[in-house]
Specification:
Elements lengths: L11 E6 L1 E2 L11 E2 L5 H12 L8 E8 L7 H14 L2 E11 L6 H10 L3 E7 L3 H6 L9 H11 L3 E7 L6 H13 L4 E6 L7 H7 L8 H17 L3 E4 L2 E3 L6 H7 L5 E3 L4 E4 L2 E5 L3 H10 L4 E6 L2 H12 L6 E2 H8 L3 H4 L1 H9 L3 E3 L3 E4 L1 H5 L1 H6 L3
Parallel strand pairs: 1-4, 1-11, 2-3, 4-5, 5-6, 6-7, 7-8
Antiparallel strand pairs: 8-10, 9-10, 12-13, 13-14, 15-17, 16-17
Helix pairs in contact: 1-2, 1-10, 2-3, 6-8
Bound molecules: iron/sulfur cluster.
């Protein structure tokens, strides 16, 4: 095991819960499907991993992601939440988020979440249309969502919905329907992700065999543009490339990543960023469990970023925020003038109309948003 006891300079904690009922065809996340027998071993391993930090430590944000955290049986779910919040109690006004699968959200589960202090639920809706949910291999029906959201909101009012666009066969009208249905549920926050075909997924294999066709790039762009337009019209702020929030409901945990704040992360595949070092745990769930049980290190990669690298990465990540990168923020973090550090790249991107620079900051232009990956890569 990484025997060092880490200094507690972080205020954000991520817990990876690597269990799902079934692996959806497009998903390449770290998880096991149909291996609920491993849950007790996982809880024991996680507890052991968290012991490397001095505690209890009061934190600003806790985020349970996966996998599907709510897939855990209720007793284990409660055990997990208690174990984490005992070690990392939430500060007043802090954010406690959990990713949830719609069909798991029974009154009983919502009760357990609420009692544990959870104050934000991120619901994996993905679509309101059964044909697309079937393509995505999700287990719920579109028509079930509004009632599930109302049930959650009655106890935990801060609900975010995840939607996917660019599903094979999806039209712009289909996507508009999903956006309208999502808005009608009254969420505080929406995340919209364009479907990607990742190496090693069933979707990519099916695409190669001609069984699935990626949607046209121009249509995908139209879908993204429609989301930006409709959600802004409804009073949501487009604050990060894929994220929209009602005023005051930006995801504090994710902002910590984009702002370059330190964070601790636990579980298989989890990546932490502490004292300038990024450590990533092994992505093998079984490997994580057995290494933890043997007292061996679960860290697969550790990289201490050189200052130059850290600055480039800060730009790469920070420009995901639509507010962009503030010169004062950059100066404060690195003691260097951003306009001097990346003068040539900034000027070129400004000339191309992809970046806007004013006296305070640089940020993506409305055109730059659509080519964000290309723009941000210029800083690496
Ligand atoms: S439910 Fe989410 S995490 Fe689980 S397999 Fe499907 S997409 Fe992946």
């Amino acid at each position: 095991m990484d025997s060092m006891t880490h200094t507690n300079n972080f205020q954000s904690v991520y817990i990876h819960v690597p269990f799902c009922r079934h692996r959806c065809g497009y998903c390449d996340f770290t998880l096991v499907a149909g291996r609920d027998d491993l849950i007790p071993r996982y809880l024991a391993a996680l507890e052991r991993e968290m012991q490397a930090h001095d505690q209890p430590l009061v934190v600003q944000t806790v985020f349970f992601g996966g996998g599907t955290p709510t897939h855990l049986p209720i007793v284990e779910l409660e055990q997990l939440l208690k174990m984490v919040t005992r070690r990392f109690p939430l500060a007043d006004g802090g954010e406690f988020s959990i990713e949830a699968n719609p069909l798991d959200m029974t009154e009983e589960v919502i009760d357990v979440l609420h009692s544990a202090g959870c104050n934000r639920v991120s619901l994996g809706v993905q679509s309101f249309q059964n044909k697309h949910l079937q393509t995505l291999e999700r287990d719920h029906q579109g028509g079930e969502i509004p009632e599930i959201v109302q049930r959650i909101r009655a106890r935990i009012p801060n609900v975010s919905l995840d939607l996917i666009f660019g599903v094979p066969g999806q039209t712009l009208v289909d996507w508009e329907y999903d956006l309208e249905q999502a808005l009608a549920c009254g969420p505080t926050h929406l995340s919209t992700y364009g479907l990607t075909f990742e190496e090693g997924t069933a979707f990519t294999t099916r695409k190669r065999r001609g069984q699935l066709t990626e949607i046209d790039e121009a249509l995908e762009r139209e879908m993204y543009a429609l989301a930006i337009k409709r959600l802004q019209e409804e009073g949501f702020e487009h604050y990060e490339l894929s994220n929209f929030a009602r005023p005051g409901y930006q995801c504090q945990h994710n902002l910590a990543y984009w702002n370059g704040s330190p964070y601790a992360a636990f579980g298989p595949g989890a990546a932490s960023y502490l004292q300038g070092t990024r450590r990533t745990n092994t992505r093998s769930v079984l490997g994580y469990l057995s290494r933890m049980e043997q007292g061996a290190s679960v860290i697969a990669e550790a990289e201490t970023l050189e200052k130059e690298h850290a600055m480039r990465e800060a730009l790469y990540v920070g420009l995901r925020r639509l507010s962009g990168m503030d010169y004062a923020e950059f100066q404060h973090r690195f003691g260097i003038d951003l306009q001097e550090f990346a003068a040539e790249t900034i000027q070129r991107l400004v000339r191309q109309g992809l970046l806007a620079a004013d006296e305070k900051r640089i940020r993506l232009t409305s055109e730059g948003i659509f080519l964000a990956n290309r723009v941000m890569a210029e800083f690496l």
